[in-house]
């Protein structure tokens, strides 16, 4: 069984052409370094040993300047390639993360704090920059160039070559030892950062509640402890980086000293070597060791390889088992101009018309707006879901909803109503069984088309920072005119509110709907649905907690929407769903029965008990 490739390895595979180009540049750079040393040694030999006139070496000095300029350009080329690799890798990772979070938003929301995910998408991805922009160019240079320099040294003086060959492994050996020690340090750093970000964002979002419950001081202490933990983890990484740099400098200095001592003995004591050879070798030796040292510094120092590895593991954890597919969708396979990528192919494919298909002969709803001419048939076939191994389970159930029917989902708190609603909406993927739309299994490839025809109105619809008009228009998923927005607002009973405001539909509402009442937020969500004109409408009992007048306004608007759509409602007030075509009764994740109100009252004791309890509650 082949070992699973790490995220960084997969990203490097996608940029293999740039790696090959970087290797070719490094090869030319090695030749330039050797040439520069040779020309410089020859110039010094002629001037100081042979006492040649200056005008005789003008051509030599010109060649030396040209080689130095070529070396600078080659270094710039390698650095530019590294930067482009870093940009493409970060783009691919962020695209993959966004796709992961958007493909399965409910499961993503349940897995950890939002602040932690933001930290991974921003800080952890940014940390990977150094791996591609600094470490990869230095590593490629350290793989190619030292071999060239060592070959030249062996040709000139084999004793020095053997000393270099014997001392060079101490640098990568030291890197390995330090790497083993710090393997978990970088992961700890990002774990601390994610914890700090999550705690901080949770505190901001719940600041009012914390203040009211007298927990603000306690939460402040938690933020402080989380911040200090991140500080300590960061300082630990920096301490290792500084220690590593000192040790590398020490190893390089001692190695160069040993070679210089051997050259001095050969040149001055034993007189077995010419000045030109000794000087050339002495010029090449620091170049040789500095290449290895720079790779080590790039690996351990600052925002570089070691930190990138810990950051990449955090990204990989968030991507989960879908990493390969998500990266394949996210960007180019090799990152070179003119190449096509699977993301572009997928976008083009999504916009192309496809043949309608369906197991029962009905038109498929999935691929084009004009294929949905009426509400669809929705079917759950032995579909079940579990949040985690020990978490709540919705047992497999079968349920069929004909076009235009109204389904109400009822049950006690925690019975699985919202989970079933999310399965029907396609927001959750069934752990077993399947969801079918007009006989076609709803899969990820259909999601974009399916969601164009679905509206979901919760008890707490999210209102974005912006104007009334902008918040309504977002429901259409297309460019809409002001007349369309105003008609949708009027249908949802929002026109009177807009008329009372100084700037009307251009009034700015706060993030999360600050400044709007619960009923006003619900009407704004309904206006989005009227503008969209969906084939399927899902409600999570949006009228709970509203006053009677607002509830009646919303009920009228909902009834108007339901005339041309399939309506699925999670019902808490049973009197609102007595006319539903199908009522599904859940208890502890099990579907006890489904039918009309009268049938269930007569046949299902739990439902009859719920109806009676609400009736008595209403009378009292």
Can you describe what's shown?
By secondary structure, the chain is α/β, with parallel strands linked by helices. The protein folds into 3 domains: 9-169 and 249-320, ABC transporter type 1, transmembrane domain (ABC transporter transmembrane region fold), CATH 1.20.1560.10; 363-453 and 535-620, P-loop containing nucleotide triphosphate hydrolases (Rossmann fold, 3-Layer(aba) Sandwich); 463-533, Rossmann fold (3-Layer(aba) Sandwich). Helix content is 63%, strand content 10%. The protein has 23 helices and 12 strands. The chain has helices at residues 7-13, 16-49, 58-103, 105-110, 114-127, 129-156, 158-167, 170-205, 207-212, 216-269, 275-300, 305-319, 323-330, 342-351, 417-425, 447-451, 468-473, 482-491, 495-500, 518-532, 548-562, 597-603, 605-619; strands spanning 378-386, 393-401, 406-411, 432-437, 440-441, 454-457, 466-467, 508-509, 536-540, 566-570, 582-587, 590-595. Strands 6-9-10-3-11-12 form a 6-stranded mixed sheet, with helices on both faces. Helix 2 runs antiparallel to helix 11, helix 6 (129-156) crosses helix 12 and helix 8 (170-205) crosses helix 12 (305-319).
Radius of gyration: 34 Å
Q: Give helix % range.
A: 55-70%
Name the overall outline.
elongated
Beta-strand share of residues: 5-15%
**Total helix count?**
23
Average pLDDT score: 79
Give a short synopsis of this structure:
With 620 residues, the protein is an alpha/beta fold. The protein has helices spanning 7-13, 16-49, 58-103, 105-110, 114-127, 129-156, 158-167, 170-205, 207-212, 216-269, 275-300, 305-319, 323-330, 342-351, 417-425, 447-451, 468-473, 482-491, 495-500, 518-532, 548-562, 597-603, 605-619, and strands spanning 378-386, 393-401, 406-411, 432-437, 440-441, 454-457, 466-467, 508-509, 536-540, 566-570, 582-587, 590-595.
């Amino acid at each position: 069984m082949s070992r699973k490739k790490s995220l960084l390895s997969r990203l490097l595979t996608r940029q293999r052409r740039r790696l090959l180009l970087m290797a070719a540049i490094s090869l030319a750079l090695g030749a330039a370094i050797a040439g520069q040393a040779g020309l410089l040694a020859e110039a010094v030999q002629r001037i100081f040993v042979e006492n040649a006139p200056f005008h005789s070496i003008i051509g030599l000095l010109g060649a030396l300047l040209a080689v130095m300029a070529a070396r600078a350009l080659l270094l710039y080329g390698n650095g530019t390639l590294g930067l482009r690799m870093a940009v493409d890798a970060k783009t691919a990772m962020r695209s993959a993360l966004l796709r992961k979070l958007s493909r399965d938003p409910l499961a993503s929301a349940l897995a950890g704090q939002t602040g932690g995910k933001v930290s991974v998408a921003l800080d952890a991805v940014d940390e990977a920059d150094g791996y591609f922009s600094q470490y990869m160019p230095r590593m490629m240079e350290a793989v190619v160039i030292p071999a060239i320099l060592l070959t030249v040294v062996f040709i000139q003086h084999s004793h020095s070559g053997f000393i270099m060959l014997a001392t060079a492994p101490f640098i990568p050996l030291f890197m390995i030892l330090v790497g083993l020690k710090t393997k978990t340090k970088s992961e700890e750093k990002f774990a601390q950062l994610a914890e700090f970000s999550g705690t901080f964002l949770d505190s901001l979002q719940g600041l009012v509640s914390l203040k009211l419950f007298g927990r603000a001081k306690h939460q402040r202490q938690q933020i402080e402890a989380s911040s200090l933990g991140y500080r300590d983890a960061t300082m630990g990484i920096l301490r290792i980086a500084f220690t590593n740099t000192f040790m590398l400098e020490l190893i390089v200095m001692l190695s160069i000293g040993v070679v210089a001592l051997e050259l001095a003995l050969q040149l001055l004591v034993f007189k077995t070597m010419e000045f030109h050879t000794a000087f050339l070798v002495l010029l090449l030796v620091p170049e040789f060791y500095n290449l290895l040292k720079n790779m080590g510094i790039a690996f351990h120092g600052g925002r570089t390889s070691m930190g990138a590895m810990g950051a990449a593991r955090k990204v990989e954890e968030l991507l989960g088992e879908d990493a390969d597919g998500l990266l394949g969708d996210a960007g180019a396979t090799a990152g070179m101009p003119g190449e096509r990528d699977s993301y572009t192919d997928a976008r083009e494919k999504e916009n192309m018309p496809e043949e309608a298909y369906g197991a029962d002969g009905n038109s498929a709803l999935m691929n084009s707006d004009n294929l949905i001419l009426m509400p669809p048939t929705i079917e759950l076939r032995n579909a079940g879901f579990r949040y985690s191994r020990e978490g709540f389970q919705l047992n497999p159930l079968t349920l069929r909803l004909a076009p235009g029917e109204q389904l109400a989902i009822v049950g006690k708190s925690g019975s699985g109503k919202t989970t079933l609603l999310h399965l029907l909406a396609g927001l959750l993927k069934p752990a077993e069984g399947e969801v079918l739309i007009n006989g076609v299994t709803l899969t990820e490839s259909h999601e974009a088309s399916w969601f164009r025809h679905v509206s979901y109105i919760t008890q707490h619809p999210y209102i974005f920072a912006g104007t009334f008009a902008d918040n309504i228009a977002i429901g259409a998923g297309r460019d809409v005119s002001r007349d369309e927005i105003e008609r949708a607002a009027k249908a949802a009973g929002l026109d009177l509110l807009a008329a009372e405001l100084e700037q009307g539909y251009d009034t700015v509402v706060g993030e999360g709907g600050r400044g709007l009442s619960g009923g006003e937020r619900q009407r704004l969500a309904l206006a989005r649905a009227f503008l969209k004109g969906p084939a399927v409408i899902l409600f999570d009992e949006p009228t709970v907690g509203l006053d009677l007048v607002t509830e009646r306004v919303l009920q009228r608007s909902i009834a108007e929407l339901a005339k041309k759509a399939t309506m699925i409602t999670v019902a808490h007030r049973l009197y609102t769903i007595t006319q539903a075509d199908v009522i599904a009764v859940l208890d502890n994740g099990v579907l006890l029965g489904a039918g009309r109100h009268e049938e269930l009252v007569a046949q299902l004791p739990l439902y009859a008990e719920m109806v009676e309890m609400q009736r008595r509650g209403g009378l009292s």
